[in-house]
Amino acid sequence: MPFSNLGLCNPIVQAIKDLGYTAPTPIQKQAIPIIISGKDLIATAQTGTGKTAAFVLPILEIFNKERQLRGKRIRALILTPTRELAVQVAANVAKYSKNLNLSSMAVYGGIDSEPQTQRLIEGVDILVATPGRLLDLAHQRALHFDELEVLVLDEADRMVDMGFANDINKIIERLPEARQNLLFSATMSAAVRAIANDFSDNKMSKPAVEISISPKTTTAPNIDQWLITVDKDTKSALLSHLINEKKWDQALIFIEKKHGAAKLVAQLAKRGIEADSIHGDRSQAMREKILADFKSGKLKYLVATGVAARGIDIGELSRVVNYDLPFKPEEYIHRIGRTGRAGFTGEAISFVAMGDFKNLCAIESRLDHIIKRKEIEGFPVRKVVPVSILNYVRKSNKG
Ligand code: AMP
Prior knowledge:
alpha/beta, 399 residues
């Protein structure tokens, strides 16, 4: 099915053709007509499914018909959990709308708000924002929500995980009742459900349609997942060995702690491997530069904490490494979803130490299969990690 059958006008269809998209992804096929019809939408879908275009394209279609924009007003608000995702979504909006007369921008914390305030003076059709900075700007009266038509919550589960539920509620309280609500989330936890229910309580909006693109086992088939059991103290040597021996062209390496990220970069450097890291302590400008270098291929190995790496879209990423296994199965699925995207094959490698056994059980239970194990010569383990029990349910509520 071509994009033009989804009710999108020619300038939009042309812009996405120029990006090399030939056919809509499943979520785009389902979501675009629903959104164009003006209905609210609650979608379970992850990064990598094409969800950004699924909500941006129909908003462009709706907005292109009539254009009235007053100073300091916005017509669509897209809330994202991180600055990186905000920048990335705004970049997509700009690409998709290049043939239209619509304005867009991203606002996020960590940088001076003055240029953002200046740009808002004339009003912006589509604003992509992180919750904290948006509230700051609203308090400063740098923007007003009275003409808002569409609200999008992107990666709603991550916003909740990062503690933004209150901010989201505060923002929603400020919005006009008559608006269209779109919510995208990789998982539907009770907290996300509560936000979605608030939408349905809004009598001014039409009943929400729910769609789900990612069933229980959510990993794409074109990701080759494997794990290596390892002792904690040999992890960095193992990583260096794999990079050198397997001649890895590229790797996004997830690590638990920010000080661990800098240490790992130094350990790799000692073995002649040039890597860099992004984590919460690095400035926004630095993070953006490192990310741009990684995307362009100038930097081949990027070490990132889970929080810093949220929402990053790196196109044809060939490999992710869980240097530290994440605690939550959802986080594992989200991380490995960064590779093997949009038709490319990818590899997801996890380092699993004895202390990770319960996490591994939880992840494999969620995947509903055991991840294949590989042994690497020269790296025998002292502390053996047993094979998981698949129907493992964590006793504490933490996971
Ligand atoms: P997202 O899930 O929005 O993060 O998108 C994942 C990746 O798929 C991005 O790099 C998009 O540019 C790409 N993409 C989105 N829609 C399509 C499509 N219909 N055909 C090919 N690639 C797409």
